[in-house]
Automatic annotation (TrEMBL):
Pfam families per record: Glyco_hydro_15, TREH_N
InterPro entries reported in the protein's UniProt record: 6-hairpin_glycosidase_sf, 6hp_glycosidase-like_sf, GH15-like, Trehalase-like_N
Residue ranges annotated for the Trehalase-like N-terminal domain, each copy included: 39-112
Protein name: GH15 family glucan-1,4-alpha-glucosidase
Annotated GH15-like domain residues: 257-605
GO BP: carbohydrate metabolic process
Gene3D superfamilies registered for this protein in UniProt: 1.50.10.10
Any one GO molecular function term: hydrolase activity, hydrolyzing O-glycosyl compounds
Length: 620
C-alpha cells in the first residue's frame, strides 16, 4: 500500500500554502514525492513541549521520536522512504491541498480537495488545560466539508534500522502496539475501518459533508498508558489550539510583521524541551546540508550558542518564563560540565558518534546519532553565555550569588584562553585564530565588566577583565583587518570571509566604518541572490545558511541602513515563502530547495532578532 500512496501523491499532489489573514505565508507552489521523498518545505511541525512530529503535505507523518525529541523515531520515513515508519491519511483519488497553521497556534490544518469533495485534516500534539500531558498524544481530525472524500490510512511503526521488530498484542480489551520499549495505542472513531497486523494498522474512512472522524496515537516508553476516549482526544485538539493562541497572544511585538514574528517564536517554542528547559537546535538528525553530501548531523541536542541566542529571542518576545527556564538550565550545565559546546536535553554529555544503516534523506549518508562538537574548543561559548546573562539582567532580572560566581569564573577563564586557537563558530576541524572567536571573547569580557558595574557580578577581577577586553579589541584591529579585502577576514593572514561577523554589530564591537565595509564585502563574496553562504569556498558542500542572511539584515538595521535591511528582508521573505512557515537550516540558492535539519532553531531565532530590530520594539 505504501508504494501505491507514494506513487499517487507523486502524480497528483499540488501543495498550496494559504494561511489565514493573521499568518504570513501566501502563494502557490508544487509539492510531490520524488523517489519517495517530500521536499522539506512540504512539512509542518507539531509539538507538545516534549517531542516534535513532521507532517507532510500528502497527509503522511514521516518523523516522530517517541516519547522525547531525542528518542529513537517511531516514524522515520523522512530518512527511509521504503522501510521507514509513517502514519499516513491520504485521499484515494487525485487531490490538491491547501495548508496553514491555525492563527497564533501550532495546530496544523490541511484542506484536501478532490473531484468528489473537500475534507479538512486538523493535526495536533495535544496538551491539556494544565499544560503538557503526562503521555504523548498525536491527534488527527478529519472533517467533511462538501461532497465525500475517501481516505486510506496506514500506521506503520519504524523498525529502527532493523534493531526492533514491531508487534501487536492485546492487553485487556485493547490492541496495543510495541516497538522495543515503546507501548502505544492506535485509537479511532467508529467510522474508521481498520485491519491490524503485527507490523501495521491499515484502513479506510470516508467523510461526507458535516461528518467528523478522529484517529490518534497515545504512546509512552517504560510507563503505564492512559486510555482516553476519542471524544476527549477530539476536545483536546481545540484545547491545545486555545492554549497556543493564549500563549502567543502575550508575545510582545506589534505592527504588520507580528504574524511572521509569532510564527518563528512558535517554532522556537516547539524546540523548548519542557521536562528540563533545554533548547534543541532542531528536531531531526542527518537531514543533509547538501544533497548527496556528508554534512549530515544530529541536531537533537542543546548548543550553548543556539540556546543563548534563543533565550535572547524569547526575551525579545517577552516570553520571560521560557527564557528563565532555559537560562537556568544552561547555567546548571555550565556548572556541572564546564563550558562544553553542547549537551543532551537531559543535561548529560553528548554520546559518541554512531551511524545508522538507513538510506538517508534523498539517499544522503551518513545517518547518525551523537555529535563530535561537544569536545571541541570554541571561544564563542563565552560570548554566548555572557550576552545571554546581560540580556536577562537588562530585562529587570537579577542574578543569584551562585550564578554570579559561576560567571565570574568563566570570565577569568576567557581572559586566560582568548589567545588560543579554537574550532570557531562553525565547528571546523582546523583550529585557527578565528576573528569571530576573538570578538566573542571581547564580547564576554565587555558584558562581564558591565555586569560587575551593575552589581550583578563580584568586582574582584573587574579591572583585569577590562584590560583583557581592550587587548582583544586591539589585537582584532591589528591582526584581522585586511586592507586588500576592506573587511575583517576569517582569521589573520587569510583572504577568506565569514558571514557570522555580521553578529559583531549586535555585540557592540567598536569600529562602525570597518563593520560597514565588512558587511559590504560579505554581500559581494558570500551573497547569492537573497541568501548568504557561511564562509568562503563552502558553496561546493552545502547550501546557503539562512541565519546568516537574517544576521546581515539585523546588522544593517542596527547601523542605520534601514532601507537596505528592509530590501534584504523582503527578498529573503519572498524566497522562503514556500511552506507553512517552518524553516530549515539552509536553502539551495539556485532552486530555493530547503536543506538541513528542521525546524531549525537558529534560522527562526535569527529571524526573530532581525524583526525585533526592524520593528523598533521596546522589548528588553
Amino acid at each position: 500500500m505504501a508504494k501505491t500512496l507514494a506513487a499517487l501523491a507523486s502524480d497528483v499532489l499540488r501543495a498550496t500554502t494559504r494561511p489565514a489573514r493573521s499568518d504570513v505565508r501566501e502563494g502557490v507552489r508544487e509539492g510531490v514525492r520524488e523517489d519517495g521523498y517530500l521536499r522539506l518545505e512540504d512539512y509542518g511541525a507539531l509539538g507538545d513541549g516534549r517531542s516534535v512530529a513532521l507532517s507532510g503535505a500528502d497527509g503522511s507523518i514521516d518523523w516522530w521520536c517517541v516519547p522525547n525529541l531525542d528518542s529513537q523515531p517511531l516514524f522515520d520515513r523522512l530518512l527511509d522512504p521504503e522501510e521507514g515508519g509513517r502514519f499516513s491519511i491520504t485521499p484515494t483519488e487525485p487531490f490538491t491541498v491547501e495548508r496553514r497553521y491555525l492563527p497564533g497556534s501550532n495546530v496544523l490544518e490541511t484542506l484536501f480537495i478532490t473531484d468528489s469533495g473537500r475534507a479538512r485534516l486538523t493535526e495536533s500534539m495535544n496538551s491539556g488545560t494544565a499544560g503538557r500531558l503526562p503521555w504523548t498524544e498525536l491527534a488527527r481530525r478529519i472533517d467533511g466539508l462538501d461532497g465525500a472524500v475517501r481516505f486510506r490510512i496506514e500506521m506503520r511503526p519504524g523498525r529502527r534500522a532493523s534493531g526492533a521488530s514491531p508487534y501487536q498484542s492485546k492487553i485487556g480489551e485493547y490492541p496495543v502496539f510495541h516497538v522495543d520499549r515503546v507501548l502505544g495505542l492506535f485509537l479511532h472513531s467508529d467510522g474508521v475501518v481498520v485491519e491490524r497486523t503485527d507490523e501495521a494498522v491499515t484502513g479506510v474512512l470516508t467523510v461526507a459533508q458535516g461528518q467528523r472522524e478522529v484517529v490518534a496515537i497515545v504512546a509512552g516508553e517504560d510507563e503505564p498508558l492512559v486510555v482516553p476516549t476519542i471524544a476527549d482526544i477530539d476536545e483536546r485538539i481545540d484545547i491545545s489550539d486555545a492554549e497556543w493562541r493564549q500563549w502567543s497572544h502575550r508575545i510582545n511585538y506589534d505592527g504588520e510583521r507580528r504574524p511572521a514574528f509569532i510564527r518563528s517564536v512558535l517554532a522556537l517554542k516547539l524546540l523548548l524541551y519542557s521536562p528540563t528547559g533545554a533548547i534543541a537546535a532542531a528536531a531531526t538528525t542527518s537531514v543533509p546540508e547538501g544533497i548527496g553530501g556528508k554534512k549530515n548531523y544530529d541536531y537533537r541536542y542543546a548548543w550553548i550558542r543556539d540556546a543563548g541566542y534563543t533565550i535572547k529571542a524569547f526575551l525579545a518576545a517577552g516570553a520571560q518564563m521560557e527564557a528563565k527556564a532555559a537560562f537556568t538550565w544552561l547555567l546548571k550545565r555550565l556548572a556541572e560540565h564546564g563550558p562544553r559546546v553542547c549537551y543532551t536535553l537531559d543535561g548529560a554529555l553528548v554520546p559518541d558518534l554512531s551511524e545508522i544503516d538507513v538510506p538517508g534523506y534523498r539517499r544522503s549518508k551518513p545517518v547518525q546519532v551523537g555529535n563530535t562538537a561537544t569536545d571541541q574548543n570554541q571561544h564563542g561559548v563565552y560570548g554566548d553565555i555572557f550576552e545571554t546573562a546581560a540580556r536577562f539582567v537588562s530585562c529587570g532580572n537579577i542574578l543569584d550569588a551562585s550564578s554570579a560566581e559561576l560567571l565570574s569564573h568563566l570570565a577569568d577563564r576567557c581572559a586566560d584562553a582568548w589567545r588560543q586557537k579554537d574550532a570557531g563558530i562553525w565547528e571546523l576541524e582546523e583550529s585557527q585564530h578565528y576573528t569571530m572567536s576573538k570578538i566573542s571573547c571581547w564580547q564576554a569580557l565587555a558584558r562581564a565588566v558591565e555586569l560587575a558595574d551593575q552589581g550583578q557580578l563580584p568586582t574582584t577581577c573587574r579591572d583585569r577583565w577590562s584590560r583583557e577586553r581592550d587587548r582583544i579589541a586591539q589585537w582584532i584591529e591589528d591582526e584581522c583587518w585586511s586592507e586588500t579585502k576592506q573587511a575583517f577576514v576569517f582569521y589573520p593572514g587569510s583572504d577568506k570571509l565569514d558571514a557570522s561577523l555580521a553578529l559583531a554589530v549586535r555585540f557592540g564591537f567598536d569600529g562602525r566604518e570597518r563593520l560597514e565595509k565588512t558587511l559590504d564585502a560579505i554581500d559581494r563574496e558570500l551573497g547569492a541572490g537573497p541568501y548568504h553562504y557561511r564562509y568562503t569556498d563552502v558553496w561546493a558542500e552545502e547550501g546557503c545558511f539562512l541565519a546568516c542572511t537574517f544576521w546581515m539584515i539585523e546588522a544593517r538595521a542596527l547601523l542605520g541602513q534601514r532601507d537596505r535591511a528592509e530590501a534584504a528582508l523582503a527578498g529573503i521573505s519572498e524566497a522562503l515563502d514556500r511552506g507553512v512557515g517552518i524553516m530549515t537550516e539552509m536553502a539551495d540558492p539556485k532552486t530555493g530547495m530547503f536543506l538541513g535539519n528542521l525546524p531549525q532553531g537558529l534560522s527562526h531565532l535569527a529571524h526573530v532578532m532581525a524583526l525585533d530590530v526592524l520593528g523598533g520594539q521596546d522589548a528588553c
